[in-house]
Each structure stands twice: as structure tokens, then as C-alpha cells.
Here is the input.
Amino acid sequence: MQSLIKDIEARYKKHAVVDVMSGDSVKVHQKIREGSKERIQIFQGLVIRTDRKNSHTSRITVRRISSGVGVEKSFLLHSPLVLKVEVTKRAKVRRNYLTYMRERTGKSARLTGVEFDRDKVNAIKDVAAEAEEEKIREEAAKAAEEELAKKAAKEAKSEAKAEAALAAHEQAAASK
Here is the structure.
């Protein structure tokens, strides 16, 4: 029974995930579906919590200040909706749960930065996620192109209508 559960978990687990730690500043690229449209939204903030790192249910909680209001989002790292997690800054912290950052604002909310190899940390290549991102971009470009074609056709139709009205007006003026 236990091996069956592990097999099912392994099937849904991503092959490689960025090693994210508490105190990291990250950009999370998330797929958002609105009606029939899909787009990629980037949520940038501070990781204040990491849970179950080696599990397929591993999760990070990211906090940012938006319009003066603190916003926290939890992301499942192995979710197909999370396309990419990019570490932008790494800080020295001694705790896993940085819940005390919720009360901090201004200078007291700063963390001591640590040098790290950004290219090495973010070098995870997920071919499926990149293909999905490219597909979404192509669909957006195709939709924009179709919209432009519709607009051009509508403009040409109204221009033809205006020319016909002008010709009828000139013909009526000439017959008088």
C-alpha cells in the first residue's frame, strides 16, 4: 500500500524544483485562467515559510506589500499551475517561519543579504513548463493578431461606407 502511494506521488512530482529557503526574495510565475483565456502572473515577495521540502506537497508562503496592505500567498511547488520559481535575493535568517515579519515595516523589515550564485540556483530547466509558457504567449499573439485583423476589416468597411455616402452626396449635388 505504501509503495502504491509513493508511486502515485512520484507521478505528480516535478523532476526538479528550485531550492527555496525562508528569507529568499522570489518571483513566482503562476498560470492564471480567466474564463477561456490563460495568462502568466508574477508574484514577487519574501518567502516567510517553507513546508515539507522533500514531499510532493511542498509549499512556500510568499509575502509582499501591495498598496500598503500585506498580501500572503501559498504556492505548492509541484503544482502544474506554478510554472517557475526564481530566487532574486537570499538573506541570512535563523528560523524557518518568519511570521515576525508581518509586524515589521520600513527599516526593521530589512534582512541581511547573503551572496549566492543566482545562475546556479535558478538553473532548473523544466521543458514542459517552458513549452506551456510559450504556448500561452503564442495564443496571446494569435488573439491580438485576430483582433487587429477584425479592426482593420471593420475600418475598411466603414471607409467604404463613407466613400459610398460621399459619392451619393456628390451625385445628388451634381444633379441639382
About this structure: The first helix runs from residue 2 to 12. The radius of gyration is 26 Å. The mean pLDDT is 85.
